Amino acid sequence: MVNAHATTELERDGSNPQPKTAKRRLPFLGLIGLVLLLVGPWLFDTYLLNILVKAYFLAIVAVTVDVLWGYTGYLTFGQSAFFGIGAYAAGLVFTHGGLTPGNVFLALGIAVVASVAVAWLVGWLSFYREASPFFATVISLVLPIVFVQLLLSGGTWTGSSSGLTGYETFDLSIEAWYWIAGSTLAVVSLLAWVVVRSDGGRLLAAIRDNESRCSYLGIDTAKVKTILLVVTAVVAGIAGFGYGSFSGVAAPELGGFVLGTELIIWVALGGRGTLWGPLIGAVLINVITAYLGSSMPFAWQLILGAAFVLVIVLLPQGLVPVLLRPFGLGQYAVHEPALVSRPLKMQSNAIPEMPALVMDGVAKHYGHLKVLEGIDLKANAGELLGLIGPNGAGKTTLMRCMSDGAERSSGTVSLCGNDIRKLPPDQCAKFGLGRKFQNANIFETLTVAECLRIAGTIRERPSLVRQAATLALPQYALDVVSTTGLDKKLGVAAKDLSHGEQQALELAMVLAQEPRLILLDEPTAGLTKTERTQIGHVLSSLAHKYKLCCLLVEHDLDFVEEIATRIVVLHQGKIVMEGSFADVVNSELVKTIYAGSSHAMQDPV
Amino acid sequence: MILFLDILTTVAILFVVTAGLMMIFGVMKIVNFAHGALLTVGGYAAYVVTQLKLDPWLSWPLALVTGMLAGMVVESLIVRPLYKRPLDAILATWGLGIVMGQLIVIAFGREVQFVDAPIKGTWSIFGVDYSAYRLLLIPVACGLWATMTGLLNGTRFGVKTRAVIMNEDLARGLGIHSGRIRFITFSFGTGLGTLAGALITPLSSVDPNMGLNWLVSAFMLVMVSGHSMASLLVTCLVFGTFQVLVNTFVSPVLGGLAIAVLAAFTLRMRPKGFANG
Asked: Per-residue pLDDT tens for A185-222?
């Protein structure tokens, strides 16, 4: 899902002069909404009230779509199915059982339970390793189509294509319904707003930016997304229950995929990733559709479709934020927590006496091509292992086999005494492994502070409601942050950092998860001389002072000589030599294989 | 016997309907959500031919050309700017599908219409009488498969296209104009989409939503088959057979969902689908 979203998140530059006013104006907008909600019945006629009640229920679903798509990057056409499930729960129970207090709870219960069950199944089908975001989207398209087909084949029980109508429902005035729908919308939006802004809620944006990084930080992203889908499905189901109870109609269109796509259009036009944009968009478009739809139905749909294409191509952040920008809205208030040191937590899964890494007979084949063969390797806490070898020797593949159980073809790997079997990267991270990639692998739209907080998720779960005033990191991560000057850039988006700063940020992120074994793939590549010295000091102190096991792939032999305690030479997929730097450099064998000549190693570059 | 012919013709129809989608997915790595609308456009091209009392065979080239022209405009105006935002690209093609659908409604109305088939009646084969036009689609699908395979494996353009499919950056580095390859394949894919629309309309009827019914099955087949023409054929064979069996022995309603549901589970169990054998 990397790069799938370009500029959906509004600019959150630290240099932005307006965050303070935004802080005051967003509640102001909310206040206008609340006043409208309160006095609506005296302002609007019955026809408009009717439309608004329906629009409010639909806007609730639009808010859930925004959370899933705008914040988490999961493009879904399927939220309408949950709305339909809620509406049909009301329709079916009230049609066949009548309106009794018991049946109301029964219907609501069915709406919730059915939504949970279906959402869980859809989550299981859509979110797994190697599943492409397209695939999840296509599954979300299948869901409403299957749902509608089942309704159509339900005969008189579901009312088939005309749906269920005329069932007895709550005897409430239109004003009461207006307040019920409006306050539900307000509560749902407020809750969503609190969660997405919270420290824990930033995880959604982290998944959108870089799902694989999340997983190497020990976060089970499939589980997070499935839980999120279940929660949003329940909300959509309850909204559908409200809609079905209010209108007295449960028609297949309510769960159909046309509505599913309309939800996407409302969210896109309103402004994804803002919550209030989709809310305003959904309500306005519904009201306009009700008035224009009768006089010029086809032309209006055409305009809507064309506007949608234009917005997607030219204005990905949506219309409402652009229209409201002159009023100072839509600017993010940058939150900069204070850094504090936290004591190292007990490692729950790592067994301290065991070696950090044991590889036994590890091999990796691509068909007949053997990339790694018979790798036996052991590394202990406090060691700083340098892994060298010519290009194509299999160094990066070896690292992959340590950090992802599904990578190797045979052999066993154990991390701190835990056999990794075929377990995914997030489990390996929980066994105490941290991996720093060759290219800075960070969360682009998150600020430095947010990246660091998400990175520590497996040690300290961020709150889902608050923005903490402090950011606690283990001392060695703090050292990296302060020596590289990142502590002065906590509010800067990660994509705006320099190359060296991004590398340092990723290292600090890996350290924030308190690994016992840390893998570094060419940590000095592209760094200046000062930065290289800094990272050398950091790594030495990690191994010698904090007793971490560090394993680095490096081409810079000077650097390896300065810090490594042991060298492992990899050649054509096999370990050909192990020993001290002097042993290796003076070995004739290494001289011949490393560069095909005996001169290369005497003058390391 | 009829069951066997049902299976063969269904597989042929599925292949015809998915080929254009596959072409675009293979090269551009995006699913063209306007594919349903393209099928509809093709259907209406056949309808126009019928209304003008022209030879029904003309509907095929007309549909192909319409689709290719539409594809050229769409690629340069909408898909190209979204190259770096694949999820937005599929949304834009979806929006485009809505626009095309509404234009068709404005031009032709919402009613269900019928078109003339190039050949009518039945052929007697293996002792049963079977719809001649359905049977005709079997050689058409085979011809389409042979043409596309030949194009990809036997021409310079095909070699370049396969290079772009495998590794676009490398291909560009070697001096292949990947933008042009994308442009050509996209318009070719849309042309195949409309052609498929014209091919399938004589089997039923045209209405502004006809494409939607095919869309989900076509998506799923492409997702399962990866990006080689041969695996697409295999996928159509397996899933088409399954669909006909469910249709015949269980219920037609479930038959309509069979492909989508089976494909979803197949991909869950075997994420690479049929791509690697």
From this structure: 999 999 999 999 899 899 999 999 999 999 999 999 99
B245 at interface of A, judged by CB pairs closer than 8 A: no
The span from the CA of B125 to the CA of B130, in Å, is 7
Residues of A in contact with B267 (CB under 8 A): 131, 135
CB–CB contact B90 A137 (8 Å): yes
Question: Looking at the domain assignment, is residue B71 inside a domain?
Answer: yes
Determine, yes or no, domain membership for B275.
Answer: no
The residue segments making up the domain with residue B263 are 2-269
Residue B153 counted as domain residue: yes
What are the percentages of helix, strand and coil residues in chain B, rounded to 5?
Answer: 80, 5, 20
How far is B42 from B199, CA to CA, in rounded Å?
8
Compute the distance between CA of residue A261 and CA of residue B98 in angstroms, rounded to an integer. 10
- Give the global pTM: 0.88
The domains of chain A, with CATH numbers, are 19-327 (1.10.3470), 354-432+517-526+548-605 (3.40.50.300)
The minimal CB distance from B271 to the residues A5, A130, A261 is found for: A130
Distance from CA of B25 to the nearest CA of A (A): 11
User: Residue-wise over A176-205: b if at least 16 C-beta within 10 A, else e?
Assistant: ebbbbbbebbbebbeebbebbbbbbbbbbb
The verdict on a CB contact (< 8 Å) between B251 and A153 is: yes
Q: What is the ipTM of this complex?
A: 0.86
Domain containing B205 — which CATH number?
A: 1.10.3470
- Is any Cβ of chain A less than 8 angstroms from the Cβ of B213? no
**Residue at B79 is within a domain:** yes
Q: Do B219 and A129 touch (CB under 8 A)?
A: no
Range 255-274 of B in CB contact (< 8 A) with A? 256-257, 260-261, 264-265, 267-268, 271-272
